[in-house]
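Here is a typical sample entry:
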Amino acid sequence: MLRRIFPYFLSQHPFCSHTATNQDATRPTQSELSHMARERNAIDVSEWQGRINWERVSRSGIHYTYIRACVGSSYVDDQFRRNYREAHRHGLHTGFYHYVTARSVEQARRQARFFARTIAPYHYDLRPVLDFESFGRLNKEEINRISLTYLRELEHYTHHRPAIYSDSNNAVNTFTDRQLTRYPLWVAAYGVQRPETGNWGSYSMWQYADDGRIPGIRDDSVDLDHYRRGLLIRRQSGRREI
C-alpha cells in the first residue's frame, strides 16, 4: 500500500525498510499457491485506482475488497464513498482500512476515533484495519504502544475487533508485542510461497502482489490478495465467520 498514499506523506515520511519483502520478485505461480485452494480472491483499493467499474470487478472472480477510507487525522479518500457504494451494490464482501500516521498514543486515539466516525454510516462486513507502516523515528516500543492504543480505541468505538495490516518484515521484527496477535493479521509478502507472520503464526489475508491487473480497473495496477478466514464480522443476523 506504500506507493498509494498521496504525495505529502511520500515526501514527509521516509519508508526506509518498511516495505513488503521481495518486492521485485515475481509473484507466486498457481502451483505454488495450490496449498491455498480454499482461499478466495480479494483486492484492496484507494483513490489511486481512479473510477472503478465494480460490476466488471465482481464478474472477474473477486469476492472481497478492502477500501481505503482515510489517512491520518483528517483526510478522507476521494473515492471512498463511491467505492463502498458500488462494491457493496455488486455483492462484494467489503471492509475499510485507515492509513495511520500517529507519532504518539494521543494521536493514535484521535486517529482511531476519526476512522470510526468516517465508516460509522456504512454497513461493512469485514473488520476495520489498521495500516501502520511508516514509522519515522519511532522506536519499536513506541510503535507497538501506538498500535495497541489505536486498536483498542477503534474496537471501543466500532464494537468490532479490528485487524492489522503489515508486511512480513514488520510482522516478524517490529510488531513483536504478543498482545497484538489478538487482532487478525493481513500480511503483505511478494514473490514467496508462504509469508512469514511472526508471533501470529498464520494470517487471515495475504497481499501477494501489488501490480495486479483486474477487469474494471484501468487507471493503475491493484494490490492482489488471498482471503483465508477471520475477517468477516459476526453479526446478530447469525452470519457465521469463516
Q: What stands out?
A: The beta strands are 40-45, 64-71, 75-76, 93-99, 129-131, 163-167, 185-188, 205-212, 222-227. Residues 140-158 form the longest helix (19 residues).
